[in-house]
């Protein structure tokens, strides 16, 4: 009897499968009358709470849903909730912002009190924010409050009235506007946070919006949907009717969905980037990442000699690596600051080209090496250990370097792949000889790249120590005149490169493919990397 | 019913009850061990949950650790965790702010379960059919072809099968959607990708067990009685050769239903699979613990169920032989 039951079960399973299988015969996309932009996200946004967002995806969505005083858009800092430029006190320590008349999505006005609450909440230790450090460095009293020593009232953010916000700074910070354009310096509504408590900003209905878009659907791990915020002060700038963001973690799947028209944009990496580039369908922008090699004189004493350091620089055939091995149109670097960072009016790199050395010169390298060895009284170089993060393009670049140094300098290089954890450890212990270092600026100002190389900075991994450099940096940090500042920083960069403890290799690029008909979609080298807020779409007939 | 039979039946029930109680006890201990070992292992992994993406200043890390209770000694954290589990509370994710692990599992599991059930049905049904066919045509072309399929199915990784299906049937011929999970048509490619693997692992086992059944006397007897071929296959071969599958069905079902990272990732299915892998990468302790615990309970439960099932299905097994007792 039981056996018969089993047989029946199997037959039932087969038939069920067939019935279900015949039920659906393909789906057809509905006629597209609305302008719907489809852009994938690589993962679920970890946090839409402005105080907790600290990753590319959360910040990308955050910039569409919320608006701070200023925002970065298409290479510029444009007005957000702020009206005009801030009033800055003579010593640069007090900044006063005036707010526009604007409303939240629920109709209540956006006030300076919302900013005061939002900013203080960011550094409140009770909030558990990952990005509090963005503020503690700059705003007076913020660090003390965050560390549990100061009080909330001593944090230097104060609403003077509904439309005026006063901010007191720790030190003169001419680039404070750039700092607060980062997507955590946002207004937050106290009543909404109180109402929802722990579940604030975990569902579309548990938040209010003051940005160009509102979140209408958040199906975890599946899809997010956005519609224009009718109360946004610049509603006319929002052109699309809807934005749909499916969550697609597999990168190849994103490319495939782009191919079938299910997505309007896809990032391109590795082989795909090369292939799309050949077909002329790829766009490349600098992704903000620059590759350099750090030389540590404590780990490898011959690096105390300037000629030897310079030899290691000139022996690298950057162009050959980029063209023959890397495949993407990266930019060979003779400097440390990439093309995307702004200078006085145009990109810093256009105003200060920074060709600090010839990009490849094996003869000169050989010569410098011999001179250096002579100065040190050495016959030949000891073995050099080169460390690199085991992942991405670093391993092939490490091999390329090893070969270059062998061929052009006769130097023996041992390669040591390291894990991310080990890399973190090295930034504390500074125990290494040479290290491939992919890194990028935190914000759009040359100071972000340069300031870590002053003496005793925690991230100064090569223990670079040059008084002249430190002096230029401290001047640049406090000079209000932007032209003067940029000149100071160009001088500092020149010093840093010429001392050659950091060998610049290349400024990396990131490839994208974007559907035809999509406009005003901006890719930025910063986090967040995609800006679709004011994008537009031509409706085509297919 | 005679008294003798009744008593015998009663004795059987008693043994069964004792057996079940004993198994439940062992299962609970297994799960406790699983929790304990996972808890300490995951904390041994170097790194911190908040230092994965970028360098955070030390005071930020300190504050975050304090906020999430990670600054307490490990034993205190462990005891607290056990206490919370007893209440059914798996805690908050460290990465996905404001989402509880209970939420994550209850949202993601249905997707994984649907994909799993579909793949199991397809995989086992086809595996059975092909396995029996191979055995019946032993050492002939059909047998060899099926075995080649089985070997390929096992040796080609899932992400290649999935990727090929996606590219050819999705991108090139546009027969199916490339990815996502918005209706039955979306489930077909992932079901094939996952089902192929199940099929491949089952085919060989079924073939072997069918060959074993074919050499039994009762098959000859059935043939001698003049029962036709289909009758023999359905009445005698199928029910008997299915037995070894049932043993593997417990762990297989537990693994498949709780999500498979690779297939779910390729086809953008919002299932549980990614949380197993991503959780460890992110050192999202509560997520790792929660998903492991969930899988563990599932596995232990299904194994238990399979044992009980055996008791009913296979007449050669009785209460005495499972418990090892002789009353």
Structural class given helices, strands, pairing of chain B?
mainly alpha
Biggest interface goes to:
A-B, 59 and 59 residues
Query: What gyration radius of chain B follows from the Cα positions, in whole Å?
Result: 25 Å
Tell me which CATH architecture of one domain in chain B applies here.
Answer: Orthogonal Bundle
What is the number of helices of chain A? 18
Beta strand % of chain B: under 5%
- Indicate the percent of residues in helices of chain B: over 70%
List its salient traits.
heterodimer, A: about 550 residues, alpha+beta, seven-stranded mixed beta sheet, about 20% strand, B: about 325 residues, mainly alpha, MetI-like fold, 14 helices, flat
Task: Please tell me about this protein's structure.
The complex is a heterodimer of chains A (542) and B (327). By secondary structure, chain A is an alpha+beta fold. Helices cover 33% and strands 19% of the residues of chain A. Chain A has helices spanning 2-23, 56-65, 112-122, 133-136, 142-146, 176-180, 190-196, 251-259, 270-278, 306-314, 318-326, 348-351, 362-376, 394-409, 420-429, 446-450, 467-478, 482-499; strands spanning 36-38, 70-73, 76-79, 87-88, 94-98, 157-161, 164-168, 213-219, 223-228, 242-246, 265-268, 283-295, 331-332, 384-389, 413-418, 434-439, 502-514, 518-519, 522-523, 530-531, 536-537. In chain A, strands 11, 12, 13, 14, 15, 16 and 17 form a 7-stranded mixed sheet that branches. In chain A, a hairpin with a 3-residue loop joins strand 8 (213-219) and strand 9. In chain A, helix 17 (467-478) packs antiparallel against helix 18. Residues 5-30 of chain A have low confidence and may be disordered. Chain B has 327 residues and is mostly helical. Chain B has a domain at 110-269: Orthogonal Bundle (MetI-like fold). Chain B is 76% helix and 0% strand. Chain B contains 14 helices and no strands. Chain B has helices spanning 3-44, 58-67, 74-86, 101-136, 141-155, 158-172, 184-214, 217-225, 229-241, 243-257, 261-266, 273-282, 285-313, 319-323. In chain B, helix 6 (158-172) crosses helix 7 (184-214), helix 8 (217-225) packs antiparallel against helix 9 and helix 12 runs antiparallel to helix 13. Chain B is flat, with a radius of gyration of 25 Å.
